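note to self — DONT lose this again. spent like an hour looking for the file last time. sequence + predicted structure for the chain T wanted, 120 res
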Amino acid sequence: QVQLVESGGGLVQPGGSLRLSCAASGSIFSINLMGWYRQAPGKQRELVARIISGGSTSYADSVKGRFTISRDSAKNTVYLQMNDLKPEDTAVYFCNAYITLLSRRFEEYWGQGTQVTVSS
């Protein structure tokens, strides 16, 4: 019913920048929250940043001041601007969304993940 399609991952040197995008499509009535999680090898998935429908944002302490989450409501798209990347940011990044469907059901969705590798 809903798809989240991520893009923008890749290989970058320490100190570099990347911008991730996640576009939601399908039977969407409204998007209540969108966010980004990441999972490094051997570690649990962790919240990176999220933005709620009113525009409020929150970040993991490890990325505050370096990452910025934003959205384009008209396009049902959320972005994650990542600056001053560090090797410890290397992970698969997953888009997450809580969506009210046209049927008025409230569901959680995940993207397929995009790899971010920070290495010299």
